[in-house]
Design brief:
- The chain contains 17 helices and no strands.
- The protein has a single domain (3-299), classed as ADP-ribosylation/Crystallin J1 (ADP-ribosylglycohydrolase fold), CATH 1.10.4080.10.
- The protein has 304 residues and is mainly alpha-helical.
- The two termini are 28 Å apart.
- It has helices at residues 3-25, 31-39, 53-68, 73-86, 94-104, 109-115, 126-129, 132-137, 142-154, 160-181, 188-196, 203-212, 220-227, 235-248, 253-261, 267-278, 289-294.
- Helix 3 packs antiparallel against helix 4 (73-86), helix 10 (160-181) packs parallel to helix 14 (235-248) and helix 14 (235-248) packs antiparallel against helix 15 (253-261).
- It is globular.
């Protein structure tokens, strides 16, 4: 296995992440109009299909892998802050604005990450939204995967919940890739259990356990009532439904994203997570060519 091939897998995950991110972000607006678009599988009109902070931060993670073959936390913090300054209007949450601004001002990331929420650290979904490329890169080394995911998360998310969510998404990505490479299939329940078994005890893990037992045929509003839909912007309210959507639509990228966006809530982040996982397993022909052609290039935010 060469580093070059691992990078290609990580880039593919980033592509799915960016498509999902831009796709999901286009469904904000008047709720009746949005639901009509979703019901009829119509992508809202757009002049430029731009992604959000989800993709911008994932690009920094990929840059680390290209440069180092692992996560260098100081470099990652610098990249996060640099890319933040390039365009602060990418949908960053309030806490992310504070963290990235202070890191950019020269404060140590260790202190900034640990200081928010009265020293508890952020349990937001921001660590998980950017982590699937790590899962793709370290797909054949679980111990290293977990170590690198934790390093990546800690730069901005000191809280355990956020790190567990990041591990869940990264491991789901590695599992999807391994299944594709070995031409193996898993039921949705078995896929979710594989992810669940890798996690530390936490609220996020408990919610993922619930996801195991929710059939793929359930109405999405019922699923949301059990798992959440990211409206709280936390790991435990976002990651479980993303894992559920990916597991139940692993063989079709387009179907996975339509299912994910129907949950509403933090739709760009849920779709980013789902896209970054499913693209590693689903046949390429299930990715609409128009989506591939329309999504904004990631080159703007490569580190220099």
């Amino acid at each position: 296995m060469t580093k070059k091939l691992n990078i290609e897998y990580a880039k593919k995950s980033l592509l799915g992440l960016s498509i999902g991110d831009a796709f999901g972000d286009s469904f904000f607006g008047d709720l009746d109009t949005v639901n009509n678009y979703i019901d009829n599988r119509i992508v809202p009109p757009y002049t430029k299909w731009e992604y959000t902070d989800d993709t911008v931060m994932a690009i920094a993670v990929l840059n680390n892998l290209v440069a180092n073959g692992e996560v260098n936390q100081d470099m990652l913090a610098k990249q996060f802050a640099s890319n933040y300054r390039k365009d602060i209007n990418r949908g960053y949450g309030g806490t992310a604005h504070k963290i990235l601004r202070e890191i950019g001002e020269g404060q140590p990331w260790q202190e900034v990450s640990a200081s928010v929420f009265d020293g508890q650290g952020s349990m937001g979904n921001g660590a998980a939204m950017r982590t699937a490329p790590l899962g793709a890169y370290f797909y054949n080394d679980l111990k290293w995967l977990k170590s690198e995911v934790a390093k990546s998360a800690l730069v901005t998310h000191f809280n355990l919940e956020a790190r567990v969510g990041a591990t869940a998404i990264a491991y789901a990505a590695s599992l999807a890739l391994n299944l594709r490479l070995t031409n193996t299939q898993l039921s949705a329940e078995a896929f979710i259990k594989e992810v669940y078994d890798q996690l530390e005890d936490s609220d996020t893990k408990s919610k993922i356990r619930k996801a195991m037992h929710i059939p793929g045929t359930y109405r999405i509003d019922t699923v949301v009532s059990i798992l959440g839909n990211g409206i709280k912007l936390t790991s435990q309210d976002t990651v479980p439904i993303a894992i559920w959507c990916a597991a139940n639509h692993l063989d079709n990228f387009e179907d996975a994203l339509w299912r994910a966006v129907s949950a509403l809530g933090d739709r760009d982040t849920i779709c980013a997570m789902v896209g970054s996982i499913v693209i590693l397993y689903a046949p390429d022909e299930t990715i609409p060519q128009e989506w591939l052609n329309s999504v904004e290039s990631t080159d703007t935010f490569y580190f220099d």
